[in-house]
Amino acid sequence: MKLNGPISHSYLDDGKEEEETQAKEVSSAAVRVVVGYALTSKKKKSFLKPKFIRLARNKGIEFVPIDLKRPLSEQGPFDVILHKLAGKDWSQVIVDYKRVHPEVIVLDPPDAIQHLRNRQSMLEVVADLELPDHYGKVCIPRQLVIPKDPTSIPDEVAKAGLRVPLVVKPLVVDGSAKSHELFLAYDHFSLSELETPMVLQEFVNHGGVLFKVFIVGESIKVVRRFSLPDVTNCDLTKISGVFRFPRVSSAAASADNVDLDPSIAEPPPPPLLEVLARELHHRLGLRLFNIDVIRKNGTKDMYYVIDINYFPGYGKMPEYEHIFTDFLLNLVQSEHKK
Ligand SMILES: Nc1ncnc2c1ncn2[C@@H]1O[C@H](COP(=O)(O)OP(=O)(O)OP(=O)(O)O)[C@@H](O)[C@H]1O
Ligand SMILES: O=P(O)(O)O[C@H]1[C@H](O)[C@@H](O)[C@H](OP(=O)(O)O)[C@@H](OP(=O)(O)O)[C@H]1O
Ligand SMILES: [Mg+2]
Ligand SMILES: [Mg+2]
User: Fold this and answer.
1) What is the position in ligand 1's atom list of the atom closest to the CA of 228?
2) Domains, in order of start, for the chain
3) Which ipTM did the prediction report?
4) Residues of the chain whose pLDDT is less than 50?
5) Nearby residues for ligand 4 (ion, Cβ within 5 Å)
6) Which amino acids does the record list as binding ATP (predicted)?
7) pLDDT value at position 28?
8) Which of 42, 211, 228 should be mutated for ligand 2, with most atoms under 8 A from CB?
9) Among 99, 110, 188, 305, which residue's beta carbon has the most beta carbons within 10 A?
10) pLDDT in tens, 118-170
């Protein structure tokens, strides 16, 4: 796996690349790859942008919506099925289709995606990795799952020795807005008001900057985003309670072109990201995901993985149009060779 260029400069479309894409357009190539997709309307809007569709068509890739009201067996044939829908029924539809059409490439297998639907199991995979530490150490924040009874939280937190502040995250990630409703807790006591099942995760100071590492098959791209600011000891003496916080790192503002302290802004070394991405790709059996990585403030090379997302917001990844279309072409070509 290879990191695709240095940290990206900006994912904000300045229109220049659009002109280039149009200038290169000669005529649509014959369709070589049919991609059937099952995506939420939000995902469709953010990912299947007109510029992307146009470039894909020029390369011989056609995107066809899957009609969820009709049997999948009556649709297609598809070379690739691209999907991000939750639910057992949908997973079964894919499994059944794959049984009849073993040649279809499913991005990605429902069983593999399942791992990322639970914030505990998603990070356990990282904790189990035994990566060489020449380029830095990769760990996960200490965390505790509260499956049901929130009244037991103060005791359990004390028993587990977790230190405040704590990030409170819903255990299950199902694509709903609710599963991204996060809180920062400055003490244990108000936690009992929150909804279970939840994960309590130690907050790691990281200078307010996060690295989003996007994986598309063999390609890796890293972007810098703003994150939550550090919490000082002084804050801890003054503040108490639980506060909901917005989706800071998925906001539109990129931290790529901003002047920041280099010890905070410097992305993790490419070899570290390459080995991390490769290992997670193998262990998870996924080709489309991203990894949220932070560097513990005050250290040179202590990295924490705090989140992994299936089929993330590629629409915000620079050059995703080219990277994704090349990925699809290579994928189908290597499948044909097999
Ligand atoms: N343990 C942690 N230490 C420090 N900051 C954290 C931690 N966990 C989460 N954060 C901050 O909260 C943000 C949201 O957390 P997380 O990425 O787990 O949520 P999410 O809802 O899954 O987000 P995404 O939109 O990336 O799927 C992170 O991007 C980061 O800014
Ligand atoms: O681009 P990052 O910062 O990784 O955040 C993504 C989330 O991780 C994904 O869960 C979102 O996709 P879904 O709304 O399909 O779950 C995804 O939504 P999008 O594809 O509509 O942008 C993003 O919000
Ligand atoms: Mg995240
Ligand atoms: Mg996430």
Assistant:
1) 31
2) 33-108+326-336 (3.40.50.11370), 119-310 (3.30.470.20)
3) 0.96
4) 9-23, 25-26
5) 307, 309
6) 119, 169, 201-212, 227
7) 62
8) 42
9) 305
10) 999 999 999 999 999 999 999 999 999 999 988 888 889 989 999 999 999 99
In the reported structure, the alpha carbon of residue 112 is separated from the centroid of ligand 4 by a whole-number distance in angstroms of 16
- Rounded to whole angstroms, how far apart are CA atoms 136 and 261? 19
By CB neighbour count within 10 A (0-12 exposed, 13-18 middle, 19+ buried), where does 215 fall? buried
Per-residue pLDDT tens over the stretch 4-35: 877 753 333 334 444 444 445 445 678 799 99
By most ligand atoms within 8 Å of CB, the mutation choice from 182, 183, 304 for ligand 1 is: 182
Q: Which residues, in sequence order, are CB contacts of 176 under 8 Å at separation 6+? A: none
CA 205/CA 213 separation, integer angstroms = 19
Per-residue confidence (pLDDT) for residue 16, from 0 to 100: 45
The C-alpha atoms of residue 188 and residue 196 are separated, in whole angstroms, by 15
Is the Cβ atom of 42 under 6 angstroms away from ligand 2?
A: yes
Nearest alpha carbon, ligand 1 atom 7 = 203
Among 317, 320, 332, CA closest to 53: 320
